[in-house]
Write a structure and sequence with these properties.
The chain is an alpha+beta fold. The protein has helices at 11-30, 33-56, 183-190, 227-233, 263-286, 309-321, 330-337, 364-373, 388-392; strands spanning 6-9, 60-65, 69-71, 76-84, 91-102, 115-124, 129-136, 142-146, 149-153, 160-166, 170-175, 180-181, 210-215, 237-241, 249-254, 290-296, 301-306, 346-351, 379-383, 393-394. The protein has three domains: 1-175, Sandwich (Immunoglobulin-like), CATH 2.60.40.10; 180-198 and 245-394, 3-Layer(aba) Sandwich (Rossmann fold), CATH 3.40.50; 210-241, no CATH class. The two termini are 45 Å apart.
Length: 395
């Protein structure tokens, strides 16, 4: 319910009042009755407009609907609903103004000024409900707060404006900006550059998509026999299916920045997070492998599970609030997660600094355990500032 309405004069109302005052002064000085009559006629619309704008905001119930998670750089709708609880008088030309600000908190990556958005409801009939929506795009990841919400109207003459500020708040988490992985990334994932060990999981008697015929071999299922081709060739022919392989991936995100970070350093951090988020999204969409994500940042963490949409959403929510650090925590992080690395998994280090595996070898226990698991050769260091990123990832 709207309360404590404030009414103020608009610029058009100021001009109108100046003309009215000029007429009143002239009528008083010259003692012209017709000017008094004209002044009285002009006061009427002024009072009528004041009464209408005050009544139009009475007994209105307003609400806002917004998603709890969106992706940075992607537009999303925000619905504003208004219910007129009056029985007779409708409300015209209601203007809703919303504010979106980064939520205060330690480590919130969202920075910048307040974002303003608004929408207009042309008419809300008595005893009915109307709604409108505006589309908003937040360019940076982080947590944002909606509100307060302001409702105003100048109907019908635009001389006066009535407004009320509502303590209607909402929160939204903006995830990392997603890009597109190029075919070079898919080729890198499917080749042996990560190592010679591959974990194969058959999905059943039919392992993939049917793409050709071949001669029958001992051990083939009778259900694979292509009877028409067998009759035509005079020998048993079976369907051949593409063998599908699952790629278990361990993604390590190294978010290191110099103590006096420059804008270029911050840009590499966002690129590393966006690339990692895109990889997580892509693997979650496929959903046939195991994914482990470790973050050397603030807050640090390691999460592992089957690459499902639910697990991917949880990782993206954590990546939305992570921020870089100036300490070298990479060796300690990987040394603590070595026991969680699946045998034969592919390890990818996405780093904001150019380097090599020397950072990892600072943990002798980690190196020994990786050698024991035969996974050390599967580690690849990817510097997001290198030209290689242009071949693997596009915004």
């Amino acid at each position: 319910m709207l309360k404590r309405r404030s009414v103020r004069i608009c610029p058009e109302g100021v001009y109108y009042a100046c003309v009215l005052g000029f007429i009143v002064v002239g009528a008083t000085l010259r003692d012209i009755n017709l000017l008094f009559v004209l002044a009285g006629l002009m006061v009427g619309p002024f009072l009528f407009n004041w009464r209408m704008v005050a009544l139009s905001l009475g007994r209105l119930a307003v609400d806002r609907k917004v998603a709890d998670y969106v992706t940075a750089g992607h537009p999303f709708p925000v619905e504003i609903g208004c219910e007129n609880q009056r029985r007779r008088l409708g409300s015209w030309v209601l203007v809703f103004e919303d504010a979106v600000v980064p939520e205060p908190g330690d480590g919130n990556p969202a920075e910048g000024e307040v974002t303003r958005a608004g929408v207009i409801l042309p008419y809300v009939a008595p005893g009915s409900r109307s709604q409108a929506a505006y589309r908003l795009t937040l360019p940076r990841r982080g947590r944002y707060r909606f509100g307060p919400l302001q409702v105003s109207t100048r109907f019908p003459l635009g001389l006066l404006k009535a407004s009320v500020r509502l303590p209607k708040y909402g929160r939204i988490l903006v995830g990392p900006r997603l890009g597109q992985l190029t075919p070079h990334w898919l080729h890198l994932l499917d080749t042996q550059r990560f190592g010679h060990q591959q974990v194969q999981h058959r999905q059943g008697p039919i392992d993939g998509d049917y793409y050709g015929l071949r001669e029958w071999q001992p051990g083939d299922s009778k259900r694979w026999i292509h009877w028409r081709a067998t009759a035509r060739l005079g020998r048993l022919a079976v369907r051949e299916f593409e063998r599908q392989q699952e790629h278990d991936l361990v993604l390590i995100l190294d978010l290191w920045v110099p103590p006096e970070a420059e804008p270029a350093d911050r840009a590499r951090v966002e690129l590393a997070i966006s690339f990692s988020a895109t990889v997580v999204e892509e693997m979650s969409r496929r959903g046939r492998s195991r994914l482990t994500v470790a973050v050397a940042g603030e807050p640090a963490g390691c999460w592992s599970g089957r690459a499902t949409p639910v697990f991917g959403r949880q990782i993206l929510e954590r990546l939305a609030m992570v921020h870089p650090i100036s300490e070298d925590r990479l060796a300690a992080l990987v040394g603590g997660m070595v026991l969680d690395v699946p045998l034969g998994a592919r390890l990818l280090v996405v780093s904001t600094r150019s380097g090599n595996l020397g950072h990892l070898h600072r943990s002798a226990d980690f190196a020994d355990k990786l050698r024991h698991q035969r996974a050390l050769a599967n580690v690849i260091w990817l510097d997001v500032g290198s030209p290689q990123m242009n071949h693997l990832f596009q915004w």
